[in-house]
Description:
Order of helices and strands: HHHHHHHHHHHHHHHHEEHHHHHH
Structural class: mainly alpha
Distance between the termini: 12 Å
Strand content: under 5%
Radius of gyration: 27 Å
Number of strands: 2
Strand order of the largest sheet: 1-2
Largest sheet: 2 strands, antiparallel
Amino acid sequence: xxxxxxxxxxxxxxxxxxxxxxxxxxxxxxxxxxxxxxxxxxxxxxxxxxxxxxxxxxxxxxxxxxxxxxxxxxxxxxxxxxxxxxxxxxxxxxxxxxxxxxxxxxxxxxxxxxxxxxxxxxxxxxxxxxxxxxxxxxxxxxxxxxxxxxxxxxxxxxxxxxxxxxxxxxxxxxxxxxxxxxxxxxxxxxxxxxxxxxxxxxxxxxxxxxxxxxxxxxxxxxxxxxxxxxxxxxxxxxxxxxxxxxxxxxxxxxxxxxxxxxxxxxxxxxxxxxxxxxxxxxxxxxxxxxxxxxxxxxxxxxxxxxxxxxxxxxxxxxxxxxxxxxxxxxxxxxxxxxxxxxxxxxxxxxxxxxxxxxxxxxxxxxxxxxxxxxxxxxxxxxxxxxxxxxxxxxxxxxxxxxxxxxxxxxxxxxxxxxxxxxxxxxxxxxxxxxxxxxxxxxxxxxxxxxxxxxxxxxxxxxxxxx
Length: 466
């Protein structure tokens, strides 16, 4: 009798624990809120296509958006109903990954939904890309491991030249860099010195396919003399990829960019990750320098390609090739758009932080253990002059890392850059505050209680048996 009662109690407790822990749905069945699970837009489109009501509404919405503005579309009740249904579908919360295999298709699906949700032409648009979780410190670790050089020689070298040499030591980086330099420098005719379209395509391939530990060093190397700063400015072959005979109006350039799904997405991503936030330590959303620099690099190779405006060593000024001349009554909006590049504290701080080898340390109370650099290796023979690198009469070195700053703390504790060297868990601010996350808080609390109840089961059984 006692054993029978014990068995019943065990079954009862098992049911309670299962309900509290929230069991997964059986294979082949979606959970009640399965629509809200964020997936990439290509996968979301497949899920929608498998659901008759979703697929029919999606076809309707695409027909509604063809050649119509938002107000005209919403005046049609059928279009409005389709949009409301799709807001509860996986398409609404889908995102894309930069450089993914079907990136363009993914972005086309994303904008087919979200262009119908915006109130006309918005100044800032939410990024269609998944948020960035990596940080600059990850790039520094990889760069120091790949180089194997002593950071102490850093102050005597031309960092931008070092970046070019490091790229030449990597087959993929060297091949794609040589490719875009050749394409962007190839004269087409007496009146057309290059093909900007082909140049942009080659640049996009380079920045999308080469790891950041190489591309960032070329784009954001720190400089103490004008020759170095000019080399940095010339990284993207600006005579072809950036400059033109005349500067277009910035709002016209933005409108041109937004007609292309890729360019529109990269611009929205830049605004999401680099928009100045005066409530954060670094002026960057989520205090994530890496997210901002990645978004900046993602703009290169499009109509909105940014670059350094000069070879100054005392200040950093970035701008797309445009002006606000002829803006009329839109001049204030144009100036605001341009200032997001030219006077952006987040972007400026991120570039300087990379050049200094510093990152935001997010947990001062529990500093991460020092990283042991690989043993110093013998210097390799000087590289021969490459067709892509004209001036090679500088010492070789590597960017200073946050690790090296900590290791040489006695010398650098009073430096201005020290305030930029933090660990990775001090601040916790969402990179994309607009992005919805679908976490069932009740389920989390239930699992917590389930974890507390479970250890009591053996005690109850023991008492029953006794």
